[in-house]
Amino acid sequence: MYLWNSKVVLITGASSGIGLELSKELCRRGAKVIGLARSLDRLRRIEGLCKNFKGIKCDLINYEDIKEAISKVRKYYGRIDVLINNAGGGLAKRLIEHTVSEFEYITKLNYISVFNLIHEALPLILKSKEGVIVNVITAGVFVYLRRLPSYGAAKSALHYLSQILREELKEYGIRVICIYPGVVKTEFFRRAGMTQPKKGIEPKHVVRSIIKAIEDGKENVFIPSYLRLLTALAKISPIRVFI
């Protein structure tokens, strides 16, 4: 049995969507949850709802913010049992129309910041007896995201990074879990400049799948599960699949 009441969990993008629901559910299960987000007001509201939640204002684009956040986690608890890299964002724009600064921002948010956070957090994860790193990627890395090209490129890099980390961290007893969700009903699409999809996965469903993956020792999780088959077919298809 996985005992959440003995775990220290660090979640990025904790103030909304999947991150918010994860924070509330893991607090309910008794975990000590630290949430990172840019909105201090939202973090304070979560602290008011969950007594075992601590919010840290952190802009993941800023490496100094990451170092300061991990310093606070070290001071609070001295270790991290579960790191959930959930934060992300896209830009609905053709790749050739991106400015350099736009492309750099999307890449930093979805890829480079994840490496930076893992780099800083790893000494604390190594102090856990059963450390876990969860990277929320996207099922879109197995097709071509026509409307979110920079996001797809950055998440594809994160997918590759996650496979390498999984192999390198095995000898230290640290598990790396990759989450590949489809369309989720969050603020992501509005922030990316897209129309909110009428159909999609509820964040709570993604949360249940992430928690089950951690508890059951899974490595790769597709949400919904049928996406595993569809992405496998896309990889072997002689036709390039654009969505």
Structural overview:
By secondary structure, the protein is an alpha/beta fold. The chain has one domain (4-236): Rossmann fold (3-Layer(aba) Sandwich). It is built from 8 helices and 7 strands. It has helices at 17-28, 40-49, 63-76, 100-125, 149-169, 188-192, 203-216, 227-236; strands at residues 8-12, 32-37, 53-57, 82-85, 132-136, 175-181, 220-223. A 7-stranded parallel β-sheet has the order 3-2-1-4-5-6-7, sandwiched between helices. Strand 4 (82-85), helix 4 (100-125) and strand 5 form a beta-alpha-beta unit. Helix 1 packs across helix 7 (203-216). The radius of gyration is 17 Å and the shape is globular.
Blueprint (SSEs and pairs):
Elements lengths: L7 E5 L4 H12 L3 E6 L2 H10 L3 E5 L5 H14 L5 E4 L14 H26 L6 E5 L12 H21 L5 E7 L6 H5 L10 H14 L3 E4 L3 H10 L7
Parallel strand pairs: 1-2, 1-4, 2-3, 4-5, 5-6, 6-7
Largest sheet: 7 strands, parallel
What is the CATH level 1 assignment?
A: Alpha Beta
Q: What Rg is obtained from the alpha carbons, in whole angstroms?
A: 17 Å
Q: Count structural domains.
A: 1
From the spread of the alpha carbons, the general shape counts as globular
Q: Mean pLDDT across all residues, rounded?
A: 92
The proportion of residues in beta strands is 5-15%
Termini separation:
40 Å
DSSP, total strands: 7
Superfamily (CATH H level) name: NAD(P)-binding Rossmann-like Domain
By secondary-structure content and strand pairing, the structural class works out as alpha/beta
Number of helices: 8
Order of helices and strands: EHEHEHEHEHEHHEH
Helix content bin: 40-55%
Strand order, sheet with most strands: 3-2-1-4-5-6-7
CATH topology: Rossmann fold
- Specify the CATH architecture: 3-Layer(aba) Sandwich
